[in-house]
Amino acid sequence: MTAPISSAPVVTRFAPSPTGFLHIGGGRTALFNWLYARGRGGKFLLRIEDTDRERSTPEATAAILRGLTWLGLDWDGDVVSQFERRDRHAEVAHEMLVRGTAYKCFSTQEEIATYRSAREAEGASYAAFVSPWRDADPATYPDAPYVIRMKAPRTGETLIEDQVQGRVVIKNETLDDMIVLRSDGTPVYMLAVVVDDHDMRVTHVIRGDDHLNNAARQQMVYDAMGWAVPTWAHIPLIHGPDGKKLSKRHGATGVEEYQAMGYPAAGMRNYLTRLGWAHGDAEIFTSAEAMQMFDLAGIGRAPARLDFKKLENTCGHHMAMADDAALLHELRAFLTAAGLSALTDVQEVRMKEAVPFLKKSAKTFPELLEKAAFLMVSRPVAQDEKAAASLDTVSRGILKSLTPRLRNASWSKDALEPILNEIAAEYGIGFGKLAAPLRAAIAGRTVTPSVYDMMLVIGRDEVIARLEDASS
RNA sequence: GGCCCGUUCGUCUAUCGGUUAGGACACCUGGUUUUCAACCAGGUAAGAGGGGUUCGACUCCCCUACGGGCUGCCA
């Protein structure tokens, strides 16, 4: 055994297989690993588990990288391709052969299938294959293809000390002699992860609890090589709102879909961090704060359900907290991701003025855009049904008399306020009655931001022009 | 089938043998308001079921139910 690695600097990793987009559950797993490493001055590595050549695609790898990048999860060093390390994996398999902790098995897949059906016919419910080659004399080896299997312990038990699940005891008799190297010489996942995690000096393996049982098999490999076992933390999977495993029918399962739906990345990170993890009553926090607080002990043992309402609420807080320039930048990225047209120069200028107040009440980018409708449109402003209704003859008269007074006013809320109040008083109406046609004229709708905010953003000339359009 | 994991308000969770079981989202009520939001105040709401252990169990043990995972020359 090598020295305990608990005192070494923290190294975590995210190791997805490139068979599709980055799943929201995978995104959270990556986030936990990132938070844990970053909060401890450690390293967060990225490895693509592409040993399955049939299902792995470069497109999927690209999608995963995009998803992580959008989430703001930066990794250290180069992306490691597991497939490219296959020679090293094979080397370890052969070393286990030398050590006597693994053996060559010449049984064909047909023989294994026959063995299993025979056992089942005998009434055995579980038919782990027992290879006749386990203790065979090398002198009897045929000149035929073979796989390399682990020589798994038959008795005793394997103890998994998991930081989330606690002590998990697996009886060794339930573990079979798993294959580590296929007959074509390529490594199997169980071998590859262990070799890679060891070579990459990973200290903490934080991953989905669908791997909990696998940890016992992998520990066999560590033991067979005399390597130190990393700290395990198997986190529960994310479920859909109905408590079932998250799948396509629940709606969005891919991280990039959330980007396209317009959730800000900071809010997404906050929400995902709190999904299945808690630190007292902490709810809204920055990633820097999360790094300080994040620990394995705070991870829950039960699967968590996705709650879009809470996601939105969390995102709303982060929209409001965001830096104006950064938010504008993220808005542009959203427009691209959602396939919407980019802002025109005029819209850019106005948006820059509007973001400081729009961000306070928007939860997502589509919502922000909805509130920004008044600055996106160009003259003549189309009226929706309710807006048109509020622009009756009387209202148009009021707007008409307002226009000249705006010409000479200084363009600030303090200067505008008395003017509007004055008009309202002259016509003997409340400010609310005046605001309705104003909203209609300026935005073409009845639900808008404050009339003052809108006027200041689009400017005097545009306001007057829109009022004239509406009142003529 | 076998093995493994899980189960506190509708949801995310706090609690680490003694609390009026706390917070957040959602929901309801009221306030504020120039519309929608936002915001402020208050309210409804929980320990899967059954046995133990204990002076005392949400907390420890067992059983049941339900949910999930693993059981591949997939990862």
Task: Name the average pLDDT.
Answer: 92
Strand order of the largest sheet: 1-2-3
Q: What characterizes the major β-sheet? A: 3 strands, parallel
Principal-axis shape = elongated
Number of strands: 12
Radius of gyration: 31 Å
User: Structural class of the helices, strands and pairings?
Assistant: mainly alpha
Number of helices: 20
Instruction: Please estimate the helix content.
Output: 40-55%
Distance between the termini: 88 Å
| Unreliable stretches | 1-5
What is the strand content?
Answer: 5-15%
Features:
472 residues; mainly alpha; 12 strands; 10% strand; RNA-binding
Short description:
With 472 residues, this protein is mainly alpha-helical.
Describe this entry's structure for a reader:
Helices cover 48% and strands 10% of the residues. The strands form five sheets. A three-stranded parallel beta sheet has the order 1-2-3. The protein has a three-stranded antiparallel beta sheet with strand order 4-5-8. It has a two-stranded antiparallel ribbon with strand order 6-7. Strand 1, helix 1 and strand 2 form a beta-alpha-beta unit. It is elongated and about 110 Å long. It has 472 residues and is mainly alpha-helical. The structure holds one RNA strand of 75 nucleotides.
